[in-house]
Amino acid sequence: MKWPVSFAITLSAAIALSGCAASKADYPTLSIRDFERQQGSFEAPEGSAALTPAPLPLEKMARVAALRQNIASAHQTFMGEVPSARNAVRGAAGTSVGNDRWSAAQVALSSLESRRSLAAVVLSDLDLMFVDTTLAFEERDAVANAREYATLLIREEDEILAELRGALSQ
After folding, report:
1. Quick check: is 17 in a domain?
2. How many structural domains are present in the chain?
3. pLDDT at position 2 over 80
């Protein structure tokens, strides 16, 4: 019974391999053709006007203003909690993990981190809006300025969090 199966497999392989022995004239060459060797660049006709982006629509301007206000509000809330977090971290200095003061400092840091995440959400909305305005070829200066403002505020928050984490770990 093995002989017919192996014969069928050998015959099938021989038939399949015979297709590989076809003449080269049936297929085009894969070498580079003359028109593929051409080089150069196209130049814009003289006197053509430079493209300028479309003005940012009013609804997007209003959205940027609202996001800017949201980030300022989130930052103000963060900064309002910083003094109590600093006091909790100072009170936990020198204590061991599991101590009540250490736990209170961890809760204060966690609260600050959640406040920072609110600002990060606004920054991500501004990032998306920046991409959308870029793809729509609209003026994006207002969005870029709001992103820069948000980045500065978040950087300040990150520095405060790093300072407090460092003070707690000592």
Report:
1. no
2. 1
3. no
